[in-house]
Amino acid sequence: MGSKRHSSLMHRYLDPATSLAEVLFGLIMTLTFTLGAGIIIEDEGREGARELLIALIGCNLAWGIIDAAMYLVGVLFDRGRKRRLARAIRASPDDRAASSVVAGELDELLGEVMAEGDRQTLYARIAAHLRTRQEAPVALHRSDYLGAFTSFWLVVLSSVPAAVPFLLIDDARLALRTSNAVLLVLLFATGHASSRYTLAKPRLVGLCYLVA
Q: How far is CA 151 from CA 42, 147, 197, in A?
């Protein structure tokens, strides 16, 4: 029950592909830091591990902010594209031309799942609706900001498991190896989780994430 609630919270404002991609990105960023930290740990020991920990969290904080901003930019871009499409439909000289505009947008998506006649009927209804609908301004809403915040914390929190060994283990080299092992396990788990949204085998996807 708890895992289902956590999953629904994770995907409430982001689709599963986006949320899992944010986790994957955070893990890769963190693993990039820890794999290259061997020299620092050898030279500076515990102090080097502390500096690595600070740099690791700081980097993911920065990238979390960037990802959140890019999420909002993506939302605005998508809504602007839809607004331009609606304008093109309203500017069409007749219903047939308006339906052709809709077809150009949706044929690739629906061509293999709907018959030609059904598609044309659907396109005509969409065009008729958009031609009479009042144009809405392109703006951000509360759910968009919550989606951006979700994107931010997924990137940031993905670095936390890698940081825990440095807080619990005094031996810096052992902490580093443990941290890398934790990250590799999490990469496999992320791939395993993403397989639920495809027809691929969970273990195979997990291994692909791990190798990549």
A: 35, 6, 19
